[in-house]
Design brief:
Elements: E1 3-6, E2 10-12, H1 14-29, E3 34-38, E4 42-45, H2 47-62, E5 66-70, H3 74-83, E6 90-92, H4 95-105, H5 109-112
Parallel strand pairs: 1-3, 2-4, 3-5, 5-6
Helix pairs in contact: 1-2
């Protein structure tokens, strides 16, 4: 299973989220099945970016892909919780937790790292 990792930085607003959406969409078109967004360097996410992430999630699902997040900081985590998106998005504590989950559901995953 092909996994592509994205690492946005700073403030995730509508413009940055649209760029991220385009990058993820291109990766899915190129054969990736899972997009992992590492949010470690994201300091703030606004409501328009959250809306774009929801649109991205729907687009990935139509292509039988999966959208996951890891290393979500305090402010983005609070936004996800206040909007209930932590129940919709696949969120992992860090990249290692994500990879351990992938190994648990697909034992061959460790060969892809």
């Amino acid at each position: 299973m092909v996994i592509k990792i994205f690492k946005p930085v700073g403030i995730l607003d509508r413009i940055q989220a649209k760029k991220l959406h385009l990058e993820v969409d291109n990766a899915i078109k190129a054969g990736s099945k899972i997009a992992l967004i590492d949010m470690q360097a994201v300091t703030l996410i606004d409501s328009s970016a959250l809306g774009e992430l929801v649109v991205l999630l729907k687009a990935i699902r139509t292509k039988d892909g999966k959208l996951c997040f890891c290393s979500v900081g305090q402010q983005p985590k609070m936004v996800f919780e206040l909007t209930g998106m932590e129940k919709v998005f696949h969120i992992f504590s860090d990249q290692e937790a994500f990879h351990q989950h992938q190994i648990a559901i697909n034992p061959e995953h460790h060969l892809l790292r």
